[in-house]
Amino acid sequence: EPFTTAWWSWLTLTGAMLAGAISVKFVGLFVVLYVGIFTIGQLWFILGDVSKPFLYTLKHFIARAICLIAVPIVLYISFFYIHLTILSKSGSGDGFYSSLFQSTLEGNRLYNASMPKDVAYGALVTLKNHRTGGAYLHSHF
Fold it and tell me: Rounded to whole angstroms, how far apart are CA atoms 31 and 27?
């Protein structure tokens, strides 16, 4: 039965799960695509029911837009905001990231270091190998 508490709950929960699917891996786009196509089919079926007024179809469209588009977008952005707010400290995997990103991590030796665009005479230069995930190059004597 549309527009009941249970209906709203399931629709909102579906939107939240869509946000989770896309947040974990971008393969979740296929889940979003599947739900989107299914929703378009449902809305087309509702629109084709001439016994219902157009306002009824509009209510369904707005409800789905809020729960299946707005809720996932807000949650997705919130997940990344929380992630980047909490995870601002240095860790063991810092070497795999660019020096510019490392300079933003608290506790990293590059924290708040200035990153010049040009190399100056006498500067310490560190090379990184991007084929091995960005690990530092080194030599053994």
Answer: 8
